[in-house]
Structure formats: structure tokens, C-alpha cells
Amino acid sequence: MVQKADKIWFDGKLVPWDEAQVHVLTHTLHYGVGVFEGIRCYVCSDGSSAVFRLQEHVERLFLSAKINEMVIPFTQEQIFDAIIETLKANRQPEGYVRPLCFIGAGAMGVFPGDNPIQTIIATWPWGAYLGAEALEKGIRIKTSTFTRHHVNVMMTKAKTCGNYVNSVLAKREALADGYHEALMLDAEGYVSEATGENIFMVRNGVIKTPPLGSILAGITRETLMILAEDLGYTVVEDRFTRDELYCADEAFFTGTAAEVTPIREIDRRTIGEGSRGPVTAALQDAYFKLLRGDNPKYGKWLARYTI
Ligand code: PMP
């Protein structure tokens, strides 16, 4: 159960958490055309707080809206500032931020007409998405019976609410079968991503990740690629199959919520030594240092705030 904060920013105003309500004929509730972001903020080692890559998340929110032909009635700067304002109002030094733009009530057909585009920003404390132990020991995953979206069925570059029906189905199946997460293949059978994470594999020191086809262009994915190159690794964006993945020395997921989570088993095959591998450990360490403000090269990626 999500831990309540004091306020939710709703169409320009901070309202008490319990009063952030919508009408049951909200268009998005029926047809799934809404766009959202998942953002994290951390306490830095100097005691201040920082939202990680806030600018990029806000930009992606607006691109998701553009793809879905939704016009957000605020500027990117206003949403950026509203996120900081909400974190401060909730006195939240660390946690998760969820902006969501949705089509409000009005027309009830599939064509949303001029129904209002509404925006909320919620924040709440949220620990490790796949559990604290997962970050250290790694997780067990299983190839899903659900295929990831074909690029002409759903707009996979947008973080659209309705896209997540596929994720929820796959996640439920993976958990019911005793796994931590689902591995999803694209419509051609190549490894795509997970229900809310991008995937990387490591073999013979080379790091590989699927190209931007059916996957969401993860901000953590991009961050990890940059950090890996800084550490001297070669990173290749290329398609690979599940059997190539079975032979990996290491594999890991990336995502704002999941951060850098090692994968220790795929479809009953142990990956590497069945624990967090050295490349994953090095990248995880570099990622957490960056988030905590200990990598001055990327200070620009931290939107600092004090409560
Ligand atoms: N793929 C999907 C489907 C996701 O929902 C997410 C989480 N936003 C990611 C990948 C990872 O993206 P990011 O690193 O930007 O959080």
C-alpha cells in the first residue's frame, strides 16, 4: 500500500491527498490514453536532496503527450517547478515522484473531443522496487507468455497508461509462477525489456542492450550506458535472443524504480555465478554515487532542493 503524503498537486494547486479525486467518467479511466512519469529523488551525501534527471523526465512526459496528441496546459518549466514544490510541501527528502496527465470527463466516445487534459503530481516514499535484497543478490526472472508491444500497435516511445496493461498481465504471471519479474520478447522473438525495466547483458566484458525498437527509451538505460563508457566498457546496442541471454556472464535490469538490479536466473538457467557479477557491481556503485551527488561530472543531472 502506498504511503500517503500530505498533498497532491492537481491542475496547478496543492490539494490534500484524500481530496485528489476524479469523476468516474474520466476518459482515461475508460480508454487508457494518459501519460505519466516515474522519477526518483535521493538524499545526497552532503545532506541536500536532489531529483535525478528531472529535466529529462519532464521532457519525456511532454513527448509522450505529443505522441498521444494530448496538449498539456502547462509548460515544461511549470511542471518542473511543480514537482519541486510538491516534494517540499510533502517534506520529502527522498522517494518517488509520479506526474500523470490524463483526459478528463466530457465526451464518452473513443474520440476524446475537447475533454480537458488534467495533470497531477503525487510523491511518496518508496524503497527498492524489487526489494532491498534484490539489489545485492539479484532476482529470478522468466520469459513471459505475453509478447511486448509491436511498434505499430502501441506507441512504445510514449509512457502511456494503456501500454501497461501488457506489463500488468506479464507481472502477475511472473509473480504467480514464483519469479520476481517477467522477461518480455518483442513481436519477432528478440529480447525486449521487462514490465518496467530495460535489460542489459554482459558477455566477455562487452555490455549489450536491445536497441530502441519496442522498448521504452529508459533514462536509467541511457545513464548506465554513459557510466559504463566512462568506466572503460564497450556498450553495444544490438538485438539478442533469449538463448544468447542464457549464456551471459551477467545480466541486469535498469529503471528509475528498479535502479540497477542484478538478474541471477533466467528460465531456470543460472546466470554467471548466480549472484551479482563484477561489472554489474561496478555499474551499480557508479550509479548510486551519481545519485548521491558524488560524481561532479554529472552534477547537471541533479535538481537540488532543500526542505
Ligand atoms: N521500460 C518500461 C516499460 C518502463 O516502464 C520503464 C520505467 N519507466 C523503463 C523501461 C525504464 O525507464 P527509466 O529508466 O526511464 O525509468
Report on the structure:
The chain has 307 residues and is an alpha+beta fold. It has two domains: 7-124, Aminotransferase class 4, branched-chain amino acid transferase, N-terminal domain (D-amino Acid Aminotransferase, Chain A, domain 1, 2-Layer Sandwich); 132-291, D-amino Acid Aminotransferase, subunit A, domain 2 (D-amino Acid Aminotransferase, Chain A, domain 2, Alpha-Beta Barrel), CATH 3.20.10. It has helices at residues 27-31, 54-67, 76-89, 132-137, 164-176, 219-230, 242-246, 278-291, and strands spanning 7-10, 13-16, 34-36, 39-43, 49-52, 95-103, 117-124, 139-143, 181-185, 191-193, 198-203, 206-209, 234-237, 250-255, 259-266, 269-270, 302-305. The strands form two sheets. Strands 8, 9, 10, 11, 12, 13, 14, 15 and 16 form a nine-stranded mixed beta sheet that branches. Strands 1, 2, 3, 4, 5, 6, 7 and 17 form an eight-stranded antiparallel beta sheet that branches. The longest helix has 14 residues, at 54-67. The structure holds 4'-deoxy-4'-aminopyridoxal-5'-phosphate. The site of 4'-deoxy-4'-aminopyridoxal-5'-phosphate has 13 residues, from helix 6 and strand 14.
